[in-house]
Every structure is written in C-alpha cells, then in structure tokens.
Write a structure and sequence with these properties.
Layout lengths: L15 H31 L4 E2 L9 H16 L5 E8 L2 E12 L4 E2 L5 E3 L4 H13 L21 E6 L6 E5 L6 H6 L13 H10 L12 H8 L17 H13 L3 H13 L10 H4 L6 E3 L5 E3 L25 E3 H12 L3 E2 L2 E2 L3 H8 L14 E3 L4 E3 L1 H6 L8 E5 L3 E6 L4 E6 L10 H11 L4
Parallel strand pairs: 1-3
Antiparallel strand pairs: 2-3, 2-17, 3-4, 5-10, 6-7, 8-9, 11-12, 13-14, 14-15, 15-16, 16-17
Helix pairs in contact: 2-13, 3-7
Amino acid sequence: MPIRYKAAVHGQCPPVTTLLAAFVAVLFVFQTIGSSMVVAQDADYQAGPLVEAEAASVGMSDDRLARVDNMLRDAVENGDIPGVAALIARRGKIVYWRAYGSADVESDRALKRDDIFRIASQSKAITATAVMMLWEEGLFRLDDPIERYIPEFRDPVVLDRFRYADTTFTGKPASRSITIRHLLTHTSGIGYGVIDGDERFRMMYKKAGITDLFTSEDISIEESVKKLATLPLHHQPGEKYTYSEGLDVLGYFIEVVSGMPFDEFLRQRLFDPLGMDDTWFYLPKDRASRLVAVQSRSDSGDWSRYPVTFYDPDYPVKGARRFFSGGAGLSSSAKDYATFLQMYLNGGELNGTRILSRTTVATIMANQAGELFGGATGDRHMGLAFGVNNERAVANGGRGSVGTFDWGGYFNTQYFADPEEQVVGILMKQTQGPTSDNTAWKFRQLVFQAVND
C-alpha cells in the first residue's frame, strides 16, 4: 500500500522522525522484493538437475547456435572426426545437446547424445574435487608433505645422471618435500611415464613397471604409486610445471585419508549425490554398449578402431577392473560432465546437495602456480587441476570471460565453464593419432558468440 501523510497544517511539514521511518519502510520493501527476485532467479537454475529449455529463455540465440550445428555436421561429413556429441548449457538449462556421426565405424553404430566416452585427463578435476572435499573436513592442509600420508615418498631425489645402456640413474636429494598442492598443480617434479616428454623418464617408468593413465591389467593404484615413489623427480618440487601422475598419487591419498576405496568414495560422496549415473572407472554391464569406440584415421582418410598398444582401448569394459586412475581412468557422458561443471558454477552446490563451499571453489580457481604455468604472458593460470582464463584470454577472443575454467582429455574431449556468463560447453570425441580436427576451438568460439542478452 502507498504510504500517506496528512496534509501539513499552517505550513508545517511532518516531523523528521516520521519521514525517516517512512523512508526506512519503503527501502525495506524494495530490498525485500529485490532479494526475493534474486533468490528466485538463482533457485531457478541452481535447485535441480540440468534440464532442457528454449535457448531464448536463458539469453542464447537459436540462429547462432545453428552455427555450432553446421560446424559439427561439416566436421563429420568431411572426415575430420568420425563422430561427436556436444552439449551447451546456460544458467542450468541445456540449450543444445546433439550427436553426429559414428560411435563405431566397424559395427556401423550411430553415435547418440547420451553415449559414454573415455574422458582421460578430465578425470583430474574430479579427483581434485574429491581431495578438496576431504580438505574441507580438516583432515590435512594443502602444503602438508605427501610423505605424511604415503611414507614411501619420504626423502625424494631429483634426477642427476642417467645411463641409457641400462636405465640406471643417480639422484641428488630434493631440497623440500612434495606437497599435496604440488601434486594438484603438476609442480611436484613427478613425471608421466609413457607420455612423458623426457625419454629418460619413459624408460625408467617402464622398467619400474609403473602403470600410466589406464589399464585392464591386475594392479591397484596403491601398488603403482608406491613404485612411483622410488623414482627420481624431473626437478625440485615447486620449481617448475611438469604434467604428471600427481593426480594418480592423490587417488591413492584419498583412499588413505578417507579409509575407502577411491571408486567407492567417488560413487558415494560425489557421483550419486549429483546424479552422475554414467560416470565410472569401469562400466556396469547395462552401460557397456554405450561406450564409444576409440578410432584412428588411415592415410587414405578412413576411420577404424584404434588397436591395442600400451593399453587396450576396451579397458573400461574388460580386464581386472582394479586400477582407479585419478589422473585418467574415468569414462563419462556429456550430460554427466556438464552436471559436474554446473555444480562448480553454482558455487559448489547442485540438486540440493552441497559438495563444496563457494569459498573452497574460489581457492580451487585461484592462481596456484604463479608463472610456472603459462609464463608471464600466458592467457591462463593453473588452479587446483583446472586451467583458468585471465584477461589475456578475453583479449585473444573466443575463450570466454576471466575465470572461465577448462581442460581436456587424451581421447580428444574438451570442456569449459564460464562463471560470469553461466555457460557450460562439453565436446566429446574418441580419436587417437593425427587428424584434421578443428572442432575444439571452433566449438568454444561459436558457443560464446551465441550469447544473446
């Protein structure tokens, strides 16, 4: 109701206290209305799971999203990729979720939008999230030495000399211990075995029997990590950025700290609460048929299944099913991974379940490696297992706002999430070897040009 005053008598105004009280009352009404609108708006895209909606309802353009459609369709028709599933969401609403091409050329199975993909290094963000969930319980500090929880890492050494003839080496004592933060940011000095950029480390890891990335062999992460702890480091902990098996070490660390097998911890504490029913280290039988084949292209341009090399591409559905690689072992669907990212955009909450505090999310996205990642002129910094845009990324164009976080996977998968624009982009493919694929940068650029508000 409007607030009324009696007319002034003999030219007198209402008392100042009356005016002040009226002003406060009006201000309270407006603040209440405004707060209610904000809460309602936030609840609209934070309260429940991701659902499909019209693009215009969340400030996206259907006409501009058609450019994404055309680009992906052309990439498949031109043979750049055998197939692709893509998902775009804004403000918690899915505005684009489609698939093109083949899931397996040899069986002539068409790719479906809810198919399951090996996400490889996109597992790292999930492992880092699990680490920080335990950190929130006060069980450790980020700068604790890992040897406090895995004693085999006590007294690390840095590679000094190496003999190619027999792969023997000598090391010099490291000047500091490896910390949990080092492992989260790839600054520990640990290598990456078969994909390491230094041939000496590839040779040492192979001789030591380190299991890299993923496997169908009968080995646990505990066994592999303890072998890894006996090998030298690339450099002093905290002095350089070297992409590493640090997140695999943290997978075992989670087992030690939580007292649970790593796969069970993720299922009970993260996947089930978020409704991520298609995300697994090893797929249940009822989901195995939805796994997309890894494919490679011949010189003539034909696609076929990728052969067994240092790993069996069918590792998610066969073998011992014991190696829970925190750095590369998970498989997932486009919607499941978008759900995980939406939890981050919501400040750590989704489906009525709080996974992380928003203050913890801020720590995860902060610059954790200084100039060790990207140097002084890079367009991203390193968070806790995420790459995060800085101002240069915005200036470069097509990569999202400051704070947009991203990563990708060994089998040609990519993701990004923009907290400012509340946009999630997921691009799922399964290829190995040389391709003419430009969908990653094109998809990201086309997603952001479709923002229409």
